[in-house]
Amino acid sequence: MSIYTKSGDQGKTTLLFGGEISKSDIRCEAYGTIDQAVSVMGIAKSNTTDKEIKNIISQIQKDLFIVAAELATDKANYNKLKKNYDIVTEQMVIKIEKYIDSLLEKFTLPNDFILPGTSTISATIDFSRTIIRTSERRVVEIKESGNLINPQILIFLNRISDLLFVLGRYHDRNQNFELATK
Question: How far apart, in whole angstroms, are the C-alpha atoms of residue 29 and residue 34?
Fold first, then answer.
């Protein structure tokens, strides 16, 4: 099997279950930034020794593949996606909220703006959070254009960015945070 298909050489890409769009399409931008975030999370995951953080990041990465698959599916083929793959659900959002609540029970989060960089791992988690925020903005554009099929995606991305913020602080919970406002 060849890794290169040459089908993208003219600036087009194929969606899951068919359909072709420009690589500049907002959907490509949305799922492309998710791909960036997943990759950056891999840096944090590979460098931390904290098993809980590794497990949470792995779960986030897997869930983000579900988001990307939905964003890479044309409306006309959405039922095929649902038949063959998971989609983002309210239960997934609730699971992320439970992760956040569980982590916040284990340390006190300062009530100030925290500067990234307390550690390389938390800074990497923060970097992935900012990439998720970019994807979230692209998904808002998709929604505003009337092309967001599953509204849970936007809610889910918002919660993922919250979780990543908390996860970075959790990683550094035994260190002094540098506050932006003090």
Answer: 9
